[in-house]
Amino acid sequence: MKRFLSLALLPLLVTSCDVQVKTETNMQPKETTATQADSGKKIIGAKLQVKAEKADEFVAAAKAVIAASRAEPGNISYTLLQDAYDKTTFFFFEEWKSQKAIDEHFATPHFKAFGAQLKDFLAGAPAITIYACPAEKKVGE
């Protein structure tokens, strides 16, 4: 339980946001409104359960999408973590400057290619949470 609690608090350790949580169960982008697009920084947390026999292939594909995503102008950070106790559980943590940056990311060829590969790697539907940070403050301020 401790390891999940600490990972769940990771975004709050970095910043203190007016958190609005939106949980998705698939990797399909949704249409956004103008208000969402202009609402400030976003942090995405995605938990993926990968088939054991596909873990190495998944990591190789993830490294490619991470490198390309980090080069996008709207990306702040893009990290993949592997559960220390369950080698088939992975977590993506991404920081984006805005919803617009996320929408542009979803339209990139590298993201679309990675999304097409996921069906072969995943053992179930991913759980994705998007945190909105419209009034970002450092912890303790």
Short description:
By secondary structure, the chain is an alpha+beta fold.
* Element pattern in H and E: HHEHEHEEHHE
Rg is 15 Å
What profile does the largest beta sheet have?
A: 5 strands, antiparallel
Number of domains: 1
The CA-CA distance between the termini, in Å, is 29 Å
Average pLDDT confidence is 80
Question: What coarse outline follows from CA principal-axis ratios?
Answer: globular
Q: Can you count the beta strands?
A: 5
Q: Oligomeric form of this entry?
A: single chain
- CATH topology, by name, is Alpha-Beta Plaits
Q: Ranges with pLDDT <50 over ≥5 residues?
A: 1-26, 28-37
* CATH architectural label: 2-Layer Sandwich
Instruction: Tally the helices.
Output: 6
Strand order of the largest sheet: 1-5-2-4-3
- Residues in helices, as a percent range: 25-40%
CATH class category name: Alpha Beta
Estimate what percentage of residues fall within beta strands: 25-35%
Instruction: Assign the structural class, choosing from mainly alpha, mainly beta, alpha/beta, alpha+beta, or little secondary structure.
Output: alpha+beta
